[in-house]
Design a protein that fits this description.
By secondary structure, the protein is mostly helical. Helix content is 70%, strand content 3%. Helix 5 (138-160) packs across helix 6 (162-172).
């Protein structure tokens, strides 16, 4: 019987990065109605920018800031230049447009950096402490702490700030909100900014926790989308719970010989299960 404790600890850190991406996806969807399949690719771009600066001898703190800034600007550019031109189309078209954007970014990263094995090392990798008899790096602890704190901050922001209330109004009815004076274009822009920041942070963390690969980080959006599906693209607590469950299950399946090689299917299983649960119909019993 394998010892699952180390995999549980590592799974919580990995799940926290899914939480960050999923929260960004939900916030953006609630404000603009766009399912952003480019979230992972934007995060991958942030990681590559950070890695390139460090490789050239630049300061590490500046490299992280630069990576997240570029991710934010790229996300905002899409939200300002492309998304408004698709606002009158159906949701599937808007989602496919973000998928196309992700593939463009993936091709761009492949052209500039290739797919060679890399790792974005953070200074916190060398700092650790013991938890349940397992050595936990400070990077993993920071990832988990960020996932929890960011979720709490976003929930408070949506519930109590003026802009958060406007985002919630847009999620209910965009046309009516615009008639009542909500500046839709401005709120959309801020939603893309929040999405870009969270994508950049999660991309940098994933490049350290897993590996720096354009394909790996781009397709890390799949667990985040699955978590958003569990939360119906509306409930942040359900989204966070889904992301944590997906990340932990993926990690716990790793040492199981028969199932381990197929652990990447975990997000699909969770998403399909959630959709079947949502579509269930009450059973009437006639007496």
């Amino acid at each position: 019987m394998p010892d699952f404790t180390p995999f549980l600890v590592s799974g919580l850190a990995l799940a926290a990065t899914y939480v960050l991406s999923a929260v960004g996806i939900v916030v953006l969807y609630r404000a603009s109605g766009v399912v952003n399949f480019a979230q992972g690719a934007v995060g991958a771009l942030a990681a590559f920018i950070s890695w390139s600066i460090v490789e050239r001898g630049g300061p590490e703190s500046l490299s992280w800031l630069a990576g997240v800034t570029v991710a934010t600007l790229v996300s905002l550019a899409y939200g300002r230049l492309i998304a408004p031109r698709l606002v009158s189309t159906d949701p599937i078209t808007r989602a496919v447009a973000t998928l196309s954007f992700a593939l463009i970014l993936l091709g761009f990263m492949g052209y500039l950096w290739g797919e060679g094995p890399r790792r974005l090392r953070l200074p916190t990798d060398t700092m650790s402490f013991e938890l349940l008899g397992v050595r936990v790096t400070l990077t993993r602890a920071i990832a988990f702490g960020l996932g929890v704190s960011v979720t709490a901050i976003v929930m408070l922001f949506l519930a109590h700030s003026r802009m958060g209330l406007q985002m919630r109004a847009l999620a209910s009815n965009r046309e009516l909100s615009a008639m009542l004076g909500v500046r839709v274009f401005r709120i959309d822009g801020w939603a893309w900014v929040i999405s870009g920041v969270l994508a950049g942070v999660s991309g940098v963390l994933l490049a350290d926790l897993q590996r720096l690969s354009g394909q790996t980080l781009t397709f890390a959006v799949i667990p985040a989308i699955a978590a958003a599906v569990i939360g119906r693209f509306a409930s942040l607590p359900a989204t966070v719970a889904g992301a944590l469950a997906i990340g932990v299950c993926e990690a716990l399946l790793t040492p199981v010989p028969v199932i381990g090689p197929f652990r990447s299917a975990t997000p699909f299983i969770f998403a399909v299960g959630a959709m079947l649960w949502m579509q269930r119909k009450p059973v009437f019993v006639y007496r």
